[in-house]
Amino acid sequence: MSQPVIEVRGLSKVFVRDSFTIAALEEVNLTVEQGEFLCLMGPSGSGKTTLLNIIAGIDRPTSGEIQVLGEDITQLSEDRLAAWRNVHIGFVFQTFNLIPVLTAYENVELPLLLTRLTAAERRRHVSAALELVGLADRMDHYPRQLSGGQEQRVAIARAMVSDPTLLVCDEPTGDLDAQSAEEILQILSRLNRDFHKPIVMVTHDPRAAGFASVIRHLEKGRLLPHGVASSATSRA
Fold it and tell me: For residue 227, is pLDDT > 80?
């Protein structure tokens, strides 16, 4: 049996605000298998984005461990963690985070500038990534010349261009209309199905969650058992 992509064990995160402590996550245990499309759901403040950020190496837990392909990333120094993120994690956010003065091609190329690839090699990678999201004919367009859905597709191409181990998506359809959201989810589903790319996605939208192979719910910092929905989701 293949090694899980992610193993989270006893993970807790506490934020300190003045004299108050806020438990964002409490004793979370989670496994993400190879080729899995995991959706994390829960009400606002449930800890789902905090968990996503820790999985992606953006934030650190207060206690517990998280192993990605057998490596405990909580033990890495800041420099090593930054290098690890560049290799292993592709990010897709609710806000597209494109640089407005750069073309679609230049935005997608950005992660590759940290590698030793030649300009010709970078061009092949960028062209393939934009082709993958259906924007090969828009590579010279600036973000202001693209629709919201097209901007998010550029963001997905940028996340995928270095072929990361894991794709993490934080409300990737939150700023999109229904048709554009459907197109983005179809792209993510195809990346997972055809390229076996593991995906961890945070969303509050049940329609978006329907594209995932596994759905887990958080409530008040705790991961609920399989098949149990949070109370806020149940009322939706």
Answer: no
Give the model confidence (pLDDT) of 156-197 as tens digits: 999 999 999 999 999 999 999 999 999 999 999 999 999 999
How far from 18 is each of 15, 22, 122, 186, 220, CA to CA, in Å?
A: 10, 11, 47, 44, 21
Q: Is 67 helix (H, G, I), strand (E, B) or coil?
A: strand
218 forms beta bridges with 223
What is the end-to-end Cα distance of the chain in Å, rounded?
38
* Residue type at 54 in one-letter notation: I
Q: Given this model, what pLDDT does residue 17 score?
A: 83
Both tokens of 13, joined, read 């995160």
Q: List all residues 6 or more positions away from 180 whose beta carbon is below 8 Å from its beta carbon.
A: 147, 148, 149, 152, 173
Secondary structure of residue 41 in the 3-state scheme: strand
The average pLDDT across 206-225 equals: 95
- Name the helix (H) or strand (E) containing 51: helix 48-55
Q: Which amino acid is at 67?
A: Q
Task: Check whether 235 has a pLDDT greater than 90.
Answer: no
User: Please, what's the largest Cα pairwise distance for the chain?
Assistant: 55
Closest among 57, 59, 58, 82 to 68, alpha carbons compared: 57
**Could you give the 3-state DSSP secondary structure of residue 16?**
strand
Whole-angstrom distance, CA of residue 162 vs CA of residue 112: 7
pLDDT one-digit tens code per residue, 33-81: 999 999 999 998 899 999 999 999 999 999 999 998 889 999 999 999 9
Tokens of 123: 């061009």
